[in-house]
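hey can u check if this looks right to u? its 106 residues, i copy pasted from the old doc so theres a chance i mangled smth
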Amino acid sequence: MTALDVRGGTATSRSFWLGVAAYLVPSFPIAYAWHLVVFAPAYEALRIYRPDPIIPFGFASMLIQGLAFSSKAGARLWAFARDPVVVVHHACGRRQEHHDLGTDLC
């Protein structure tokens, strides 16, 4: 099994493909229903879709998105987004960044 170095740990190829599946399994049915059922009349009125949509192209684009989100770069992006930062501006003009919410802010 291959491993990728990710901030804070190691991601295996199994976790990579589970991440792709975790994106595709809920997203594809929701997108299908959203675009081709619920709002189909609105999209037809805008004339932005073909009369006969190519479903495999939509799936392929979502697969590419899932691969990007689950990749090493995607893992770094989400790790960065999960790193909460609290910025404290003091009256004297000093600025402090706290990357751990358990840190005493005073």
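Residues 32 and 38 are 9 Å apart (CA to CA).
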